[in-house]
From TrEMBL:
GO molecular function term, any single one: ATP binding
Organism name: Myodes glareolus
Disordered, as annotated region: 254-277
Biological process per Gene Ontology, one example term: nuclear-transcribed mRNA catabolic process, 3'-5' exonucleolytic nonsense-mediated decay
Protein name per the record: Helicase SKI2W
SUPFAM superfamilies membership: P-loop containing nucleoside triphosphate hydrolases (SSF52540)
Localisation: Cytoplasm
């Protein structure tokens, strides 16, 4: 730097004047100061240097002498620091927490220390990554809201959480008994450091030798067959079957103890109840201690009395809403919340149960006031200083509820995919998917949670998202109470019973079918001003169906059609659904409603395009006054002011503004979110008179209208056109009628073409709503989230799902039945299978297998075309059912409908009119001999031959003979029916009947072991492998049965009955054990297939431990496998942020389409790579046995908006995106919003695996997407 030029002053004179100089600025101007001192300057370094001098200095320092730079100094390049060797540091480890402590035992009166007892400590070393307990310490503050994918969830309610007491008393030595080899193995040590040994009576009887693992304390002395327990008497008793040496020696009086010890009761404090019972039992003399032990062991193993069956558990408790709650204010003198109106009876009933902290299920019609229950729960949580979570099925409903609850309570927060407002509030509103993510991630918000409110629970029927509701209900901890709000459903008790059994708490079901505003349903057939009065009442407010109104509508439509045919020709179409006719229908309808003061009206149209067409066609309709126009204009200006200039000029914004000024509105998924909110707010203010909406509007908050109109009663559900379901119709029709304003609500169905059939209308309007059905399915995210937690199993999640509820609700009864059968089996005497009876077990097994094989073959015959053709009139068959056992019959008639029924003449012994159950026919012989098993052993009447005519199902035919009789089936049936009347009962049968009966009797006598039957392979041409192999196996079994030796023993009948009883009990026990096991789960095969997919892709190892890729997949919200594979294949790391966002749009876009040819080459290659990865995953799924084909898996990707997203991420205004794709603006916005959520989840996953570059790119991509109208703040949150 250049030296500063300073003014040289003369030395101070002797007078030493108090003066000083100050240089001002860099212009050379000086000022005198009256302060003595050296000259100063206002600049730190005097005059600034000139540019040439700086350049010369830089050249001299950095270019002329580069050695000055530290880069070229090599004297420190080889510098290093010697590490001190400390091998002992490798052995240092953090001290484990002390698992136990010593607790002093004091005298209860004096407090004197009598001794010390070791007690196990709880909550040692608990953390969010090792424990599911609520007693674990909270995680970091930054993760308290969302949790972390690496954290464990909290223990689900209803499942038994193991406590330290349970762990200390639970027997950890799992005994493995092989009854065939007679071995007993002890695998693990007990908690106190010793080895428990179980005594099994069956193993003792078989002289089993225990294989005991060596430990510090041996419990089996040399030469003994059983172990003993050396624990002191005051130790906690092990389970029954563990022998106590001190107890065994007491009766022998070997110790000579004092009287005080003898007076001590065996079952005193700290004693052992089981040991007391053992010691009190008298013991006889024994020649050795070993015999004494064996006798004692056999005594212990004797079966105990079964416990009394528990009373029937009632988890779903219906509440009577018809009786008034007169003492409501006496029971709740200071309610947590008060309304300006008097609550209804069902609302009071729900509030009473909420005060008792009960869980409730409220099912009521739309607009009945279910939100009152939710409001009281929120107020109750604020009073208790706890928290409430309100879940909704859609994001728009969450925003609306946030506005309503914030205005009511103030302390309300909102959590959606892209918005996070007041997360510390006592009431949080969110979608169900976010609550599921918080539960799996172990969010600390769950700790303070008192209520979870599920709104629109009937949304559980949604095939795509219904599984989320079940997952959340299963994963909620035990301290959380549940409030379910739903429309009326027929199986509310069943659903509540499932939740009650799931959570082991009673659910109070409060259901009401009463409407606060009754509805009247009409048919409208008009299409012009002349016919605008053609409105016909079909269903009145009392629920009565008016057929007169229906026929009047049919006649009016028929008269107009006949006039049309006379004018334009008879071959003209009866209905032309064009825009012109729709315009005429709506103009006449709205004129009629306007004249009757029945506006506002909601028109439900099941097509986005038709909504826009119908609203745009009413150009001449203006329903607002000048003051309303001014209010609408000001509201629009205020709401649209937050948009940028170009976004305010979007065609949809301009068009919607013009419609709204005339009192018209459109509401569907293709509308921009901010415009939908404007329409909703104006409609709630009464400024929108006519609203054309799709079905999603009925899912919103309470926005009732005076009238609801259905454009049609048919809709497309994604696969086909169908009529509206009763539940869908009721949900949308419930928007009619404003409480406190309208005496009745009006529902109108337009008849643009023909009038619908009366049966269809009756079913839609008065049918039962759809039941709540389980949509539970396995997802990879669910499997990985549960596999990473050792204490939770996917099988438990499947067991507790609503789909398994019908088969699992009787589990307790099955367990009791299994215990009873086990007791019966132990009391049964073993069958003697020695000597000539050695093959008795095989004989029984052969007979059972032969019967099952024949039944299988017969089922296949009855399912085949040739088998049914052979059962024609005159065919002789063998009948076997409850009334007849191997009786011959001849087919008289065959029904022609789908379910075949065969009218058959059958031989019988006595008339079937007898009421005695013994007279219904011969019973199966108790002991089957070879001739009974190999043949049919046809029924032969003992006395006079009788006959009957019965209708048989295909399963009643045991065999089809080769014989065909000539019979007049119709004549025989009529004669038998006539003789069943009391007047003709004694009349003789016709000759045709007698001839047929005599022919059947002759066949039975000629072939007592059964007539020749049709061969399924040769005669019926059944080439199925199972049938062919079954026939060969049946012939082999017949040979084995004929050669059995046990049947020649005189003891065969008695021993066979004993064996059969044991085998039947064992078979029933196997069935019950199967029902209680995981193997009976419906989704278990698919679970194994999906785990195999994860194992093949490297997400879990052979032991089921989740690996790094699996933990990354847990952090994904959707398409977890595809996103993880793309990340680990480095398919995204080399792309720019806007290119990554464009490619990922194919995973979230819902509108199918082609990416187009205008894409850059990088994006084209990226699309192909994504498809290739998806194809590879699909092939792995197919190889592992999943039903989804590769084409279906790849077909889930839609790349129609790749170019739109790419240009948006590059900064293109939204107004210019419309020309790139024909997709509605609302769907484009939804795609970009979901894409931003996916980018954030990928950012978190990249940080999890240590990919900072990819994480930064995903952060940049999310930032590029979040701008302008796409992410404009919701009007409900302002």
């Amino acid at each position: 730097m250049l030296d500063t030029e300073r003014l040289v002053l003369p030395p101070p004179d002797p007078l030493n004047l108090p003066l000083g100089a100050l240089e001002v600025g860099c212009t050379g101007h000086w000022e005198l100061l009256n302060v003595p001192g050296a000259p100063e300057s206002t600049l730190p370094h005097g005059l600034p240097p000139c540019a040439p001098d700086l350049q010369q200095e830089a050249e001299q320092l950095f270019l002329s002498s580069p050695a000055w730079l530290p880069l070229h100094g090599v004297e420190h390049s080889a510098r290093k620091w010697q590490r001190k060797r400390d091998p002992w540091s490798l052995l240092a480890a953090l001290g484990a927490p002390v698992p136990s402590d010593l607790q002093a035992q004091r005298h209860p009166t004096t407090g004197q220390i009598l001794g010390y007892k070791e007690v196990l400590l709880e909550n040692t070393n608990l953390s969010a990554t090792t424990s599911l307990s609520l007693r674990r310490p909270p995680g970091p503050a930054s993760q308290s809201l969302w949790g972390n994918p690496t954290q464990y969830p909290f223990w689900p309610g209803g499942m038994d959480e193991p406590t330290m007491t349970d762990l200390s008393t639970r027997e950890e030595a799992e005994e493995e008994i092989d009854f065939e080899k007679g071995e007993v193995a002890v695998s693990e040590e007990g908690p106190a450091g010793r080895c428990w040994l179980w005594a099994a009576a069956d193993a003792v009887a078989a002289d089993a030798v225990p294989l005991v693992r060596s430990s510090d304390l041996l419990t089996v002395p040399p030469g003994f067959k059983k172990g003993v327990d050396f624990a002191p008497k005051d130790h906690q008793a092990p389970v029954s079957g563990l022998l106590s040496l001190s107890c065994l020696l007491e009766p022998l009086d070997l110790s000579g103890g004092d009287e005080e010890d003898k007076a001590e009761p065996a079952g005193g404090p700290g004693g052992d109840t089981a040991s007391a019972s053992l010691c009190s039992a008298p013991l006889g003399r024994a020649s050795s201690l070993e015999d004494l032990v064996l006798k004692e062991a056999s005594t212990i193993a004797s079966p105990l009395e079964p416990p009394k069956p528990a009373p029937q558990e009632q988890w779903a408790v219906p509440v009577d809403v018809t009786s008034p709650v007169g003492d409501f204010y006496r029971l709740i003198p200071q309610p947590a919340f008060q309304w300006a109106f008097e609550p209804d009876v069902f609302q009071k009933q729900a509030i009473l149960h909420l005060e008792q902290h009960d869980s409730v299920f409220v099912a009521a019609h739309t607009s009945a006031g279910k939100t009152v229950v939710a409001e009281y729960a929120i107020a109750l949580a604020q009073k208790h200083m706890t928290r409430t979570i309100y879940t909704s099925p859609i994001k728009a409903l969450s925003n609306q509820k946030f506005r309503d609850f914030r205005n009511t309570f103030g302390d309300v927060g909102l959590l959606t995919g892209d918005v996070q407002l007041h997360p510390e509030a006592s009431c949080l509103i969110m979608t169900t998917e976010i609550l599921r993510s918080m539960l799996y991630s172990g969010s600390d918000v769950i700790r303070d949670l008192e209520w979870v409110i599920f709104d629109e629970v009937h949304y559980i029927n949604d095939a795509e998202r219904g599984v989320v509701w079940e997952e959340v209900l299963i994963m909620l901890p035990d301290h959380v109470s549940i409030i379910l709000l739903s429309a009326t459903v027929p199986n509310a008790l069943e659903f509540a019973d499932w939740i009650g059994r799931l959570k082991r708490r009673q659910i109070y079901v409060i259901s009401t079918v009463a409407r606060p505003v009754p509805l009247e349903h009409y048919l409208f057939t008009g299409n012009s001003p002349k016919t605008q009065g053609e409105l016909f009442l079909l269903l009145d407010s009392r629920g009565a169906f008016h057929t007169k109104g229906y026929y009047a509508a049919v006649e009016a439509k028929k008269e107009r059609m006949s006039k049309h045919a006379q004018t334009f020709g008879a071959k003209q179409p009866t209905h032309q659904g064009g825009p012109a006719q729709d315009r005429g229908v709506y103009l006449s309808l709205l004129a009629s409603l306007r004249a009757r003061a029945q506006l506002p009206v909601v028109v439900f149209t099941f097509s986005r395009g038709r909504c826009d067409e119908q609203a745009s066609g009413l150009t001449s309709l203006d329903l607002t006054t000048s003051s309303e126009k001014s209010e609408i204009h000001l509201f629009l200006q205020r709401c649209l002011a937050r948009l940028r200039g170009s976004d305010r000029q979007l065609p949809q914004v301009l068009h919607m503004s013009e419609l709204l000024r005339r009192g018209l509105g459109v509401h569907h998924s293709g509308i921009l979110p901010i415009l939908k909110e404007i329409v909703e707010m104006l409609f709630s203010r009464g400024l929108v008179k006519v609203l054309f909406a799709t079905e999603t509007f009925a899912m919103g908050v309470n926005m009732p209208a005076r009238t609801v109109v259905f454009d049609s009663m048919r809709k497309h559900d994604g696969s086909t056109f169908r009529d509206l379901l009763p539940g869908e119709y009721v949900q949308m029709a419930g928007r009619a009628g404003r409480r406190g304003l309208d005496p009745t609500g009006t529902v109108i169905l337009l008849c643009k073409g023909r009038v619908p059939e009366m049966a269809d209308l009756h079913r839609m309007m008065m049918g039962k709503p759809s039941q709540l059905q389980s949509q539970f399915r396995l997802t990879y995210t669910m499997i990985l989230n549960l596999l990473r937690v050792d204490a939770l199993r996917v099988e438990d999640m499947m067991k507790r799902s609503f789909s398994e509820f019908p088969s699992r609700k009787d589990s307790k009864a099955h367990e009791e039945a299994l215990a009873e059968l086990t007791k019966r089996l132990g009391a049964l005497e073993e069958a003697d299978v020695t000597g000539q009876l050695a093959d008795l077990p095989e004989y029984y097994s052969w007979g059972e297998e032969l019967t099952e094989t024949r039944n299988m073959i017969q089922r296949r015959i009855m399912e085949s075309v040739n088998g049914l053709k052979s059962l024609s009139t005159g065919r002789v068959v063998v009948v076997k059912n409850e009334e007849h056992h191997n009786a011959l019959g001849v087919i008289l008639q065959v029904s022609s409908n789908t379910s075949r029924v065969f009218t058959t003449l059958i031989l019988c012994d006595k008339p079937v009119v007898s009421e005695s159950p013994r007279d219904k026919g011969p019973t199966t012989p108790d002991v089957p001999y070879p001739e009974d098993l190999v043949g049919f052993k046809l029924f032969l009447p003992e006395g006079p031959c009788e006959h009957t005519v019965a209708k048989l199902q295909p399963g009643d035919v045991a065999a089809i003979s080769t014989k065909v009789l000539r019979v007049n089936g119709e004549k025989i049936s009529e004669d038998f029916s006539r003789r069943q009347q009391p007047k003709f009962r004694k009349d003789p049968p016709l000759a045709a009947v007698t001839t047929a009966v005599q022919e059947l009797l002759r066949l039975a006598q000629a072939h007592p072991s059964g007539p020749p039957t049709l061969d399924p392979v040769n005669d019926l041409q059944l080439k199925d492998v199972s049938v062919v192999e079954g026939g060969l196996r049946a012939r082999k079994l017949e040979e084995l049965i004929r050669g059995a030796q046990c049947v020649h023993s005189p003891r065969f009948p008695a021993q066979y009955l004993k064996l059969r009883e044991r085998r039947q009990i064992q078979k029933e026990m196997e069935r019950l054990s199967f029902l209680l096991s995981d193997q009976s789960l419906l989704l278990l095969p698919e679970y194994h297939q999906r785990v195999e997919v994860l194992r093949t892709l490297g997400y879990v190892d052979e032991a089921g431990t989740v690996k790094l890729a699996g933990r990354v997949a847990c952090a994904m919200s959707s398409h977890e496998l595809l996103l993880t594979e793309l990340m680990f294949d480095n398919a995204l790391s080399t792309l720019r942020p806007e290119e990554i966002a464009a490619l990922l749009s194919g995973l979230v876009c819902q509108s199918p389409g082609d990416p187009g040819d205008q894409l850059p080459s990088t994006l084209k290659q990226g699309v192909e790579r994504v498809k290739a990865v998806a194809k590879r995953i699909g092939e792995v799924q197919v190889a592992c046995g999943l039903n989804q084909t590769v084409e279906e898996f790849v077909g889930e990707l839609n790349f129609g908006l790749v170019e739109v997203v790419y240009e948006w991420a590059r900064g293109m205004p939204f107004s210019e995106l419309a020309g790139l794709s024909g997709t509605p603006e609302g769907l484009v916005v939804r795609c970009i919003q979901r894409l931003a959520e996916m980018c954030r989840s990928l950012r978190g996953a990249a940080r999890l695996v240590g990919e900072p570059v990819l994480g930064a790119k995903m952060e940049t991509a999310a930032t590029l997407l979040r701008r302008d109208i796409v992410f404009a703040a919701s009007l409900y949150t302002q």
